[in-house]
Amino acid sequence: MNAKPQKKNRCKDCPSKQRDEWAARGARLRFELRRHHLSLCEMNIAELILDKTFGWGRAATVFPALRFFADFTDIRESDVVKVLKSLHAMRIISITRTKGAPTYSIREDTESWKVKPRATVATMSRAQNLLRECNGLAPLDVFEEAALNFKNGPVANFKTSLIG
């Protein structure tokens, strides 16, 4: 019999749903980065890794040379090494080698980070809503606000165990 191959039913929304999921996860991590005690250089490097991983819909990304960190952040290469070691020691980032190239990722398990938070989720939520009120905006869940501010992504309705 000559049976025609059937066309696969592909969801046209699937790529956008994946982007939304990555954006929501990235927004939650950006919020967590801001909530913890990090120096300006540590924050810049961590956010760069976050942008080049979750912003691109990837779990990890390759930076073939330290020069790339320096170019994006204006931090000297000698200081980039120190900052990367510090972020790795705090368990905020993971550094591995893939086919000999250094690969960087943000650890999503924020409970394992070895850095003290400077503020609780409740404190940041109160401050955010007070600021929104002063600017004539309605109160908004802190994670929804974070998702709105991550790469102009759509509002993602996600909750974590951080909210009690």
Mean pLDDT: 82
**Number of discrete domains:** 1
Order of helices and strands: HHEHHEEHH
Name the beta content range. 5-15%
Structural class: mainly alpha
User: What does the main sheet amount to?
Assistant: 3 strands, antiparallel
Low-confidence stretches: 151-164
Total strand count, please? 3
Order of strands, main sheet, comes to 1-3-2
Number of helices: 6
The CATH architecture is Orthogonal Bundle
Task: Explain what this protein looks like in three dimensions.
- The chain has 164 residues and is mostly helical.
- The protein has one domain: Winged helix-like DNA-binding domain superfamily/Winged helix DNA-binding domain (Arc Repressor Mutant, subunit A).
- The protein has six helices and three strands.
- It has a three-stranded antiparallel beta sheet.
- A hairpin with a 2-residue loop joins strand 2 and strand 3.
- The chain starts with 13 loop residues before the first helix and ends in a 15-residue tail after the last helix.
Topology at a glance:
Blueprint: H1 14-35, H2 40-53, E1 61-62, H3 66-73, H4 77-89, E2 93-98, E3 101-106, H5 121-134, H6 142-149
Antiparallel strand pairs: 1-3, 2-3
Helix pairs in contact: 1-2, 1-6, 2-4
